[in-house]
Design goal:
This protein is α/β, with parallel strands linked by helices and about 400 residues long. The chain folds into 2 domains: about 140 residues, Spore Coat Polysaccharide Biosynthesis Protein SpsA, Chain A (Alpha-Beta Complex); about 260 residues, UDP N-Acetylglucosamine Acyltransferase, domain 1 (3 Solenoid), CATH 2.160.10. It is about 20% helix and about 30% strand. The chain has 7 helices and 39 strands. Strands 12-15-18-21-24-27-32-35-37 form a 9-stranded parallel sheet, covered by helices on one side. Strand 2 and strand 3 form a beta hairpin. One of its GO terms (molecular function) is transferase activity. This is Sugar nucleotidyl transferase.
């Protein structure tokens, strides 16, 4: 799609980035997953770049890399809230040096000469006031965190072109299963599919990436993306619009939801129209309410302002950040927002906002002691042969301190 080749690309975030908290308390916005890939991966694949750069909050350095940057090369700057599509990529490819694409004063992308770009990158601060403007209105953007759910089905379909996978109509499935619309089913290498599964790809593709496992009796209805090394547990019912990220384990009933990576919902219980970060664990029979009894649109509590805001969505479940966990039989309210490293073990419907590092039990709500929380984090990560780095610990301590400042 691109009319010119870019030597490097750097992601920046604008004033709307805080709308993606609490998921972006532990990751840059370009690391959010929607469809098959993260935002960063989509752009790299689309523009044929092996790597990219990003501006990064100081407390995330060492956990995430700012990326290799060439001071003597011009740079394409991309707003992390925007997703690549044909129209936008064509417009970007036509940018001249020191021009920017804007829509209603919002900068979408900019192509900036080497000296200025290097200054912006090393100062960790994107500025574009001096650039020539080109108006562009046909861009696909994320305005709020729940847009990830809204766009996920179409993004799974769009990302097929980036996978280089062949449909099983050409390769075969290699196992006894009930298959509908095999031309829309794409399987990676070393995928293990047990007998008795049902794949229905009439309404969208089913993508199962390298090393994933689909256990016996599972039913998958596209559009669905199952990430590398992920496991769909025996007898699972996975509905369209769902992304199961790398090394996740998902079972029970799941609809229209996104799991980023290393998260588990291994048991029965309904999960609908929800988003989970990394290292989340949902206890058996945890249920996410995703529809109000009066069928009105769901309101959520804004993470930054703590004010109730209207989403305009009739279906919205839970948004839960990294390392948070629920006990068995937990009931999560419609439009619940849960921060980082909270432990929810209640016998009533959850509050709409659960702050980071909250120990929420049936009798009271307490601060989750940092040392205890880190101990649990390390234990879960060790189960996947991952050690917590000093930089990761520092990032978590920063989030803990922000919690005390009510941020």
């Amino acid at each position: 799609m691109a009319g010119q080749l870019f030597s490097q690309m750097c992601f920046f975030s604008d004033e709307k980035a805080s709308r993606f908290h609490p998921l972006t308390l532990t990751r840059p916005l370009d690391d959010l997953r929607v469809g098959i890939y993260t935002i960063r991966e989509k752009w790299e694949e689309t523009l044929n770049l092996k790597e990219s750069c990003r501006l990064l909050p100081e407390y995330m350095e060492g956990v995430f890399e700012k990326g290799p940057y060439q001071d003597n090369e011009p740079c394409l700057w991309v707003n992390s809230r925007y997703l690549p599509n044909e129209g936008l990529v064509t417009a970007i490819s036509e940018l001249k040096v020191n021009e920017k694409l804007v829509h209603k004063k919002e900068v979408i992308a900019a192509y900036i000469e080497d000296k200025t770009s290097a200054q912006l990158f090393h100062k960790n601060d994107f500025q574009s006031d001096a650039l020539e403007k080109k108006e562009f209105s046909d861009a696909l953007s994320l305005k709020y965190i729940w847009d990830l759910i809204e766009l996920n089905p179409d993004q799974i379909k769009a990302d097929i072109a980036l996978t280089e996978l062949n449909s099983i109509s050409k390769t075969g499935l290699g196992v006894e299963a009930v298959v509908h619309y095999k031309e829309n089913i794409f399987i990676g290498d070393n995928v293990h599919i047990e007998p008795g599964c049902i794949f229905i790809a009439k309404n969208g593709p089913i993508v199962i990436e390298d090393g994933a496992e689909i256990e016996a009796g599972s039913i998958l209805r596209g559009p669905i993306a199952i990430g590398k090394g992920a496991t769909v547990k025996m007898g699972a019912r996975i509905y369209g619009g769902t992304t199961v990220g790398p090394v996740c384990k998902v079972g029970g009933e799941v609809s229209g939801s996104i799991f980023h990576s290393y998260s588990n919902k291994a048991h029965d219980g309904f999960c609908g129209n929800s988003i989970f970060g990394q290292w989340v664990n949902l206890g058996a029979n945890t249920i996410t309410s995703n529809l109000k009894n009066d069928y009105k649109s769901v309101k959520v509590v804004d993470w930054k302002t703590k004010k109730s805001i209207e989403t305009g969505r009739q279906f919205l479940g839970t948004i839960m950040a990294d390392h948070s966990k629920t006990a068995i039989n937990t009931m999560l309210n419609t439009g619940t927002i849960c921060g980082v490293s909270s432990n929810v073990f209640i016998d009533y419907l959850s509050p709409k906002l659960i702050k980071s590092f909250t120990w929420l039990g049936p009798d009271n709500e307490q601060l989750y002691r940092f040392e205890k929380a880190v101990e649990v984090m390390k234990s879960m990560m060790k189960r996947r042969d991952i050690s917590m780095s000093d930089a990761y610990l520092k990032m978590m301590n920063n989030i803990f301190e922000l919690r005390e400042k009510n941020i």
